[in-house]
Amino acid sequence: MTVLGQPLTRLAQVASPLSAALLSAALASPAEAGAWTPEAGHGEVIVTTLFDQSNTGFDQAGRFAPTPKYRSYLASVYLDYGLADWLAATIKPSLQSSTLGAPANQKFTGFGDSEIGVRGRVWKSDEAVISVQALAQLPSTAGAANPSLGGSKNADFDLRLLGGKNIAIGALPGFVDVSFGFRARGGKAPNEGRADLSLGVYLWPELMLLAQNFNVVSAPSNDPSHPRWAQAKGELSLVYSLNAEWRAQVGGFATLAGVNAYREYGAVLALWRRF
Fold this sequence. Notes:
By secondary structure, this protein is mainly β. It has helices at residues 9-14, 17-22, 147-150, and strands at residues 3-4, 26-27, 43-58, 64-84, 87-92, 94-100, 106-111, 114-124, 128-138, 156-169, 172-184, 192-204, 207-218, 230-241, 246-259, 261-262, 265-274.
């Protein structure tokens, strides 16, 4: 999950203080990487399109509050490649088009938040695995007129501990994947703690139900243009195996709770290719 935005002084003047703060907490896309690493010389490509919108938010007390309408369309390509059986490289460039309605009337189209990093397996058994991951989130191409919609103009750095385990729910096979991390934000934005959970259950050999929960809690902040914020987001998807190499995903997501965050909802479509 990526965090978008640093509210503009001008935007804060034309929009409500709450809506300006919310722009720093808009989420664009789910995280793809899990604890498992691909075999050396193999990997997976995931092409994702996402639609996201909101016209309400959570204020600093976590209560619902109206906001200018926010919409975002995002397309990303995620590549996970095995450098060794225990080490994987990841890269995820993205393109984004976002708008914020009246009275702000802001728009951004260009490169969104993009990531590059490595993930290393530190322990495994027949049923479970533990890994560590280091990512750099690259600055977006947002110009001076609209960085709040396009993403951070500073690089962020993310360190995570990940764990995965194969499970069974009755006769249905599946897996659980969890991660805990710390993101050091560039510029004045407060640093963040992150915790994600994924549960996959194979309803049939070709069809997986994927339930995910993404959570972000920032450090305290005394900067009114970069306030503390928090957001819990849920996503539910179906992933269908077309054959041994190709899978298709369709799902939806919504913000479950937050502080200084948008109450988002949207849809995700993705095509996965193993190689």
